[in-house]
Amino acid sequence: MNLLDSNKKIKLLIHAGTPKTGSTTLQQAMYTNRDRLLEKGILYPDLEIWQGKAKKHQWLVNYLITNNKEGLRSRFHELHEMAIKLNATMVVLSTEGIYNHWFDYSPEARDLLGELTDFFNVSIWCFFRMPVTFAVSLYGQSVKNPVTGSHPENSTSLSMEEIIQYPTFRKRLDYASFIDSVESLFGQGSLIASKYESADILVQARMILGVADHVLPDVPRLNESLSNLGIDLLRRLNSLNLPDSQRKDVFETISSLDKILSSSSQPITASEEFRQQVKVLSAQSEKTLAERYGISWNDSNSNKDDLKYEFVLIAEAGLLEEQALILCESIRIFGGRYANAFIAVLSPRPDHRPKESTIQRLEQLNVKYVPLTINSPCPEFGASFKVLGWSEYEKISTADVLIGLDSDTVFLAEPDLEIGSDHAAVRPVDVVGMCTKGLEDPRDIYWQNLCRICGVEYDLIPYVESTVDRQTVKASYNGGFVIVRRSSHIFQRTAEFFLKSVEAGLRPFANEGLKINAGHGLVSVEGSEYWGSDQACLSLAIWGANLTARALPQNLNFPLHLIEALRSEVDSGKFGTLVHIHYHYLLKDVTTASQDFMDYPGLPTEGISWLKEHVLHLRLKQSLLVGESELASSREKLQKIYNSNAWKVLTKYYKLRDTIKRIVRK
């Protein structure tokens, strides 16, 4: 929806929150780029005479709380005159306090807000977040920034189960009452409802305002949430009743510590009791959003979907286990409604088992570790262990849907994993490679022979377009992200066809002397000869059984190593936010190229910040991206914290001193 398409003279768009939906980041972006916005007829006022150089318009909330009718009308008269003088067709105000205090205003104050229609055509813009994650985030914020007075729950060292009993906390979960109230003031259609999880907030902001990326470019994500470790420390801090100056010093220490150590700690999690209470409180709100605005979280407040989906991947000693940990952590943090889904990590070879510390970390992430003994007829081809391992696990899993993932992939935002009425969801291959364009193609003989030994009719295999070099080829799919209905036995049939092909001596790149650069390193000449055969067998396993497959969205399993070929589509936003990336060899070496991808457009700010600062820095260390200078910098920061007065205050009550000492001395 582009509000500038309206024929009315001047519009007022009030971004009202909700809190904990990236408001600070959005305000920073609009404030920093207000000159560019004004060139497009959009006034984001910097009202120094009313509030000083504030990036958000808190004065609006203050006028409403005090029911200052005269002051508010005067301010909006000035805004109206300012817009006319500057040739603006829209005025944008932003303060999440509008939603946060909505039910603190008197009825007269809300009526006063309705009088803005004397000056403007008013729309209220809100991001709505999945209720349970919204409630968890509100809880974290109340611990992070406690206040006293009329909201006793915010002076808190309370638990989640205690804080949700307070009326002021519960009111913030009542999206439906807020929506009804806004529509009664400004009329139906006056509320612009955005789903927080749908896309990056700035991507949605550009769509609402009707501006291009360069007008409202990305800014660093601000006001980040703390982990369980940070929240636990702050709850203890809040119970100490320290003087404000001392509390500030200790709070900054906790925040710094949390940023350095957060990959060792879980994100804030909710108990089942808390989740159920939120579900009851938000039932009407979810219904209202679904019926009026088409916003739904697919019953994501319950565990129903968690039991339906299961991720499965491989972890082996060395690089693969480091990558697997990153992938599992990314699911738990950025998986959205799939964050609590089952995850199975397979170890297919007894002589390649991951370290005990890796297995312990998997347990902390509630990931099932499954040691197997797989005998591959071509062990030099690493993907053979994946094909055979997935097949074995498909036999014992109880999930409805399995998501097979390569370990050199990572989630950066909530994915769309719905399979609909199809039996599988896959991404066509990036480039032609070992595929065939048809009967005249030199590689077509491989495909015909493969179909023959597998008992599949060649003509049943449809044509698809490769996603990077845009060639029409017989269907072949990237094996790094495959969603299947377990009851369709696709993984088992793929393994069966693969074993038949090896027995028949079929190798797509036989005698070509190739060495493929894979996510785990260079593949031997012998292993490279089989490259792509597992993907061809997957295609036959689907279409040879008269099953159906849908193409994954372009923002899933995105081939990051080939981004330059897709740069124009990424920059234009054609693919949306890249919520899952397949980075292949980009994190294998400490090179400039391996670090450059962190700054690519299209990557969600929060997810890429986590990947760069929290996971790679601590998990991969020197073996991957992080250089010695960065490790030294971290040790220096930790040493500074360890020696600070604030740390001495903190460790007087919370014993992490030995833990930090061990990290500093590494």
Mean pLDDT across the residues is 81
Kindly name the structural category: alpha/beta
Shape: globular
- Please report the total strand number as a whole number: 19
Strand arrangement, largest sheet? 8-7-6-9-14-11-17
How are the elements arranged and paired?
Blueprint: E1 11-15, H1 23-32, H2 34-39, E2 42-43, H3 48-51, H4 58-65, H5 69-85, E3 90-94, H6 97-100, H7 107-114, E4 121-128, H8 131-144, H9 160-163, H10 167-171, H11 175-186, E5 191-195, H12 201-209, H13 228-238, H14 244-261, H15 272-293, E6 309-314, H16 319-334, E7 342-347, H17 356-364, E8 368-371, H18 383-396, E9 401-405, E10 409-411, E11 424-426, H19 444-454, E12 463-465, E13 472-474, E14 481-485, H20 490-503, E15 517-518, E16 521-522, H21 525-528, H22 533-543, E17 549-551, E18 558-559, H23 567-572, E19 580-582, H24 592-596, H25 605-620, H26 628-643, H27 645-651, H28 657-665
Parallel strand pairs: 1-3, 1-4, 2-3, 4-5, 6-7, 6-9, 7-8, 11-17, 18-19
Antiparallel strand pairs: 9-14, 10-19, 11-14, 12-13, 15-16
Helix pairs in contact: 11-15, 13-14, 14-26, 14-27, 16-25, 18-20, 20-22, 26-28
Keywords:
single chain, 666 residues, alpha/beta, 7-stranded mixed beta sheet, 5-stranded parallel beta sheet, 28 helices, 19 strands, disordered C terminus
Structure commentary:
The chain has about 675 residues and is of the alpha/beta class. The chain is about 45% helix and about 10% strand. It is built from 28 helices and 19 strands. A seven-stranded mixed sheet has the order 8-7-6-9-14-11-17, sandwiched between helices. A five-stranded parallel sheet has the order 2-3-1-4-5. Strands 10-19-18 form a three-stranded mixed sheet. Helix 13 (about 230-240) runs antiparallel to helix 14 (about 245-260), helix 16 (about 320-335) runs antiparallel to helix 25 and helix 20 (about 490-505) packs across helix 22. The radius of gyration is 27 Å and the shape is globular. The relative contact order is 0.09.
